[in-house]
């Protein structure tokens, strides 16, 4: 199975191969079972803005801070302060959520 192919939830639950490691060994979801309970911090960044301290101190209730993103642009999704994906804001019942639209592949150093 190619390592860059997305897997379905059913494939993960059935223990089918996740990827092949450098030694050619096939890895499954069961190989990761030891790390399943480790908590990670997930954050979704809608945008950023830079302000001077004097500007920050003048901000009051109802103030609007302009962000560096436009409406409809993808948001950044971080796991433990590392950019891992981009996505969109969605509404699930009465709560906000995110859906990943792009996975960011980075160096595994």
Task: Describe what you observe in this structure.
It is a peripheral membrane protein. This is Flagellar motor switch protein FliN. Keywords: Bacterial flagellum, Cell membrane, Cell projection, Chemotaxis, Cilium, Flagellar rotation, Flagellum, Membrane. With 109 residues, the protein is mainly beta. It has 2 domains: 36 residues, no CATH class; 71 residues, Surface presentation of antigens (SPOA), CATH 2.30.330. It is built from 2 helices and 6 strands, in the order αβββαβββ. It is elongated. The two termini are 23 Å apart.
Strand content: 25-35%
Q: For the record, what CATH class of the largest domain applies?
A: Mainly Beta
Task: Please name the fourth-level CATH homologous superfamily of the largest domain.
Answer: SpoA-like
Oligomer type: single chain
Going across the biggest sheet, name each strand in turn: 3-4-5-6
Helix content: 10-25%
Number of domains: 2
Let me know the average pLDDT. Answer: 82
Identify the CATH architecture of the largest domain: Roll
Computed over alpha carbons, the radius of gyration is 19 Å
Biggest sheet descriptor: 4 strands, antiparallel
Q: What is the end-to-end distance?
A: 23 Å
Structural class: mainly beta
Main location: membrane
GO biological process, one term: chemotaxis
GO molecular function: cytoskeletal motor activity
Family: Belongs to the FliN/MopA/SpaO family.
Keywords:
chemotaxis, 33% strand, Surface presentation of antigens (SPOA), FliN_T3SS_HrcQb, two-stranded antiparallel sheet, mainly beta
């Amino acid at each position: 199975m190619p390592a860059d192919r997305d897997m379905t939830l059913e494939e993960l639950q059935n223990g089918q191969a996740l990827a092949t490691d450098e030694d050619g060994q096939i890895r499954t979801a069961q190989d990761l079972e030891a790390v399943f309970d480790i908590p990670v911090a997930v954050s979704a960044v809608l945008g950023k803005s830079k302000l001077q301290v004097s500007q920050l101190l003048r901000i009051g209730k109802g103030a609007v801070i302009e962000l560096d993103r436009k409406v409809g642009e993808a948001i950044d999704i971080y796991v433990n302060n590392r950019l891992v994906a981009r996505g969109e804001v969605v509404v699930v019942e009465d709560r906000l959520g995110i859906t990943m639209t792009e996975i960011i592949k980075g160096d595994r150093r």
